[in-house]
Amino acid sequence: MLTATAVVVSDGAARYAKQLVAHLGLKVSVSPVADQPATWRFVFAYGVGKVRVAGGRLQLEAEATDPEALARVQDVLGRHLERFGRRGELTVEWRAGD
After folding, report:
1. Residue 90 has what pLDDT?
2. Domain limits at 46?
3. Mind listing the pLDDT tens digit for each residue in 24-56?
């Protein structure tokens, strides 16, 4: 599996996560992660994403079997979050996993 993560600092982290869950939940399967508080899992046809809220931070995780699918998960999570956080000038910068 290929992975990537991004950490976005924002005073509105919980609000942005809620927006992301509500919006993407209309399109894909979204569920809370039982053993991880304030964490949601997004299941796309091409990969999996996670969003975790911790304090004033959002941690995004993307996972897929090939580079193109990983890029799609990153694009969907990152693009929507940046759009929701446009006024706060949120930017998502992904880094490859180990």
Report:
1. 86
2. 2-96
3. 999 999 999 999 999 999 999 999 999 999 989
8, 96 contact by CB (below 8 A):
no
Query: Which tokens hold the place of 79?
Result: 């693009």
- Helix 13-24 × helix 67-84 angle, to 10°: 120
d(CA 67, CA 46): 11
Q: Are 93 and 6 in contact (CB under 8 A)?
A: yes
Distance of alpha carbon 30 from alpha carbon 84, whole angstroms: 18
**How many C-alpha atoms does 16 have within 13 Å on its Cβ side?**
32
Is 0.90 surpassed by the pTM of this model?
A: yes
Total domains present in the chain: 1
Q: Which CATH number belongs to the domain containing residue 41 in this structure?
A: 3.30.310.50
